Amino acid sequence: MINIRDKGAEIWETWNRPKRVAFVLISIFFAGLLPFAADWGPTSFLNTPITSFQNVLVYPVGMFILMALGLNIVVGKSGLLDLGYVAFFAIGAYSQAILSTKFGWSTWEVLPVGIVIAMFSGMLLGLPALRLRGDYLAIITLGFGEIVRIIALNSKGTGGPNGVAGIPNPPAVFGFKFDLMHPEHYFWLVLGMILLVVWMIRRFTVRRPGRAWEAIRQDEDVAALMGVNTLVYKLWSFVIGAAVGGAAGVLYASKVMVISPDMFKFDVSVLILACVVFGGIGNIWGVILGAGILAYLPDRIRFISDARQVIFGLVLIIMMNLRPDGLLPRKKREKITEKSKK
Amino acid sequence: MNFSVVTSQFWALCLQGVALGLIYSLISLGYTMVYGVLRLINFANSEVFMVGTFSILFIQVSVLGHAVNVDPIHGIQLLGALLLSLVGAMLVCALLAMLVELVAYRRLRAHGTNRLASLISAIGTSIFLSESFRIFTHSRPQTSPRLLEKWTFGEIAGANFRIDTVMAIVASIAIFFALDQFVNRSRLGAAIRAVSMSEENSRLMGINLNRVVTLTFAIGGLTTGAAAFFYTTIYENTQFNVGFNLGIAAFTAAVLGGIGNLRGAFYGGLALGLLEQFASAILGSQWKAVTVFLVLVLVLLIKPSGIFGEAVQQTRT
């Protein structure tokens, strides 16, 4: 099968710097125009029933792309199966909810704090859990996700099953208002965060942490033998993944204004993981495409309301059978047989 | 915190814990058998259990024609109805598990691709099954008819030996014994063990890999079906999402005992059932899951291969 990702990389290699910069800027410009895509005649089929297209672009599409990129660092880059990623999203969201309603902090003040809290809890979970291999890590992270939700459900400080209401929107920046009337501003904000994360991942990939993760993913024992401090690098990938999840959570809470524990169930973790694997595990562009499709699809086919999850399940089965490496698989040279297969 | 419950109801909690634990053990076989052979988490097993509980409802209500609020029946009629539901559920679950293997795993296995792809296709299967039943039942919980009159053998030290609990315990132990014999004594069992040690070598030895894999899925389905039967007789209701919590608990039980290890699944389930009962008695049932996971983390930190250990070649993933 043609590997579009490799083809794209080939073309990219032949370009010189100004050409690359121009291409990136134009791409960003068109991505920024996305909120208006559904207003234009020929593409109006993009419109989603019930929720407006612009809101769908922010949540779920933008948020899921952001989180899928964060999870991709953990699952795709260093090969650690995390089934409880929603926990960091929840921690970010609850930091925003509690700090803003109880202490009056604005979203911009909470954002760094929420990220730090998420990173810290990632470290708290990672320190014991990352000593374990493969599927044990999966079950522990799954448990962590449930624990965070159960604590939110049963504690007084988090509002119990009712959650927290009246979370303020982010204050305006440079005249850009963040309120119900301006979903496109949120989208630009999310887009900015996505670009930041993409840039960060690309920097990491070509530097020492990226190479260490790659080595760990392919064979942890060999990596350790070669002098990679595997625990430290695994912890780093976990903590950075958590930071992205936490940032998404902070933003999400201040966008929707009301959060409750059932927004952070296990299915969200599964959906984010599905986004990563569906698009092409380990490959940024694949993950973005996969998350975009999987987040958008259920909203687009909402008119068949009841059956949409059934169809979603079918799509997952069929896709995985047809393209097990995802829509845009990672580079061939990275696809050396993983030891974990055996 | 309520520690007085522990002293006043100690034996009652133990009995309930054992019954629940054995149900977990039976479901966890669906995970552990498959994991032993394929090194894959059989994610759809929880939905196999869910379909099993509904198949019992179907057999009792539609095939045998008992109304939901029927009076308990007796004698040979009761025995026939119970056996039919048990065998029916086991067969339905075994067939479904084999189908899941065919749809979600076979092609991907032939490809030899990454394990996450099969995990996602299994998750897809699981979403498909539970959502189909959600639509089918309009998200409403379904009550099963009480065919078996719940009389008790008697009370010993506060523990109430009710017929359904005793039946579940005795029958589960019998199933485990039979399965243990099968895996350790029979030719097919030897094939399963061989594949779990080395897939390539057993293929070289002339073992039909696809047949062994289908067989392990079928066995996991059979025990999961039995668990569905005991669950429905004890709790008398089911719902489209009943598989989720029980599936997670059963998977935890499998890991606790050492995943891939048959006897480990038995003890892991027992340990988890007892732990849950005591944790919910002392801390309140909402903290049950948290306690269970904290214990799991502790166990894995101290002994990463589970309490009863995996076979050596399986510790490495």
TrEMBL record, chain A:
GO molecular function, one term: branched-chain amino acid transmembrane transporter activity
Amino-acid biosynthesis found in the keyword field: no
Keywords from the named record: Cell membrane, Membrane, Transmembrane, Transmembrane helix
Cellular localisation: Cell membrane
Pfam families with a match to the protein in the record: BPD_transp_2 (PF02653)
Transmembrane as UniProt keyword: yes
GO cellular component, one term: plasma membrane
Transmembrane feature ranges: 21-38, 58-76, 83-105, 111-130, 186-204, 235-258, 270-297, 303-322
CDD domains: TM_PBP1_LivM_like
Primary localisation category: membrane
Topology relative to the membrane: Multi-pass membrane protein
InterPro entries, per database record: ABC_transp_permease, LivM-like
Protein's name in the database: Unannotated protein
TrEMBL record, chain B:
Major location category of this protein: membrane
Subcellular location: Cell membrane
GO biological process: D-alanine transmembrane transport; L-alanine transport; L-isoleucine import across plasma membrane
Membrane topology term: Multi-pass membrane protein
A Pfam cross-reference name: BPD_transp_2
Entry GO MF terms: L-isoleucine transmembrane transporter activity; L-leucine transmembrane transporter activity; L-phenylalanine transmembrane transporter activity; L-valine transmembrane transporter activity
Family membership noted in the UniProt record: Belongs to the binding-protein-dependent transport system permease family. LivHM subfamily.
Protein name: Unannotated protein
Organism: freshwater metagenome
